[in-house]
Write a structure and sequence with these properties.
The chain has one domain. Helix content is 60%, strand content 4%.
Length: 144
């Protein structure tokens, strides 16, 4: 028998298993709890830094300022959140929109899903790394 034939393409999929709550709801719910905890407990105003990477190296990690960004989002200060950590602030907003869309679609048994071809998945991974590095460069330049 010959190996010639149609091969199924392997795609990268981001979706919840059927019968479960949509991923957007899970991520948005987790984010809301996180932002609320930071805001209500004032974790963004701790007198001591808790970033072990920064304590060890003196250089901010790629997520430095995330707690302060969450605190600013809790206070509805989008510009302040963007100044603290742009990637975390934008990511939180994207996840909130994703969760809202999934919440609207859930009664009909639908949810947003993302399916990428192997080539596009590679580009998305490269883009994600580039965004993280650009955000990190900003944090270093801003002295976070």
């Amino acid at each position: 028998m010959s190996d010639v034939g149609v091969q199924a393409s392997r795609t990268t999929r981001l979706t919840a298993p059927s019968g479960r709550a949509p991923l957007g709801l899970f991520f948005a719910g987790s984010g809301i709890v996180g932002v609320a905890l930071v805001g209500l407990l004032h974790l963004d105003r701790l007198p001591v830094g808790v970033c072990f990477f920064k304590i060890a190296t003196g250089c901010p990690c790629p997520t430095c300022g995330a707690t302060r960004a969450f605190g600013r989002l809790f206070a509805r200060d989008l510009l302040g959140a963007l100044a603290m950590n742009p990637l975390v602030a934008i990511g939180a907003l994207v996840i909130a929109l994703w969760g809202a869309a999934d919440l609207l679609l859930w009664p009909w048994g639908r949810a947003l899903s993302l399916e990428l071809s192997p080539g596009l998945a590679r580009v998305a991974r490269f883009g994600a790394v580039a965004l993280i590095l650009a955000n990190w460069a900003y944090l270093i330049a801003a002295g976070r």
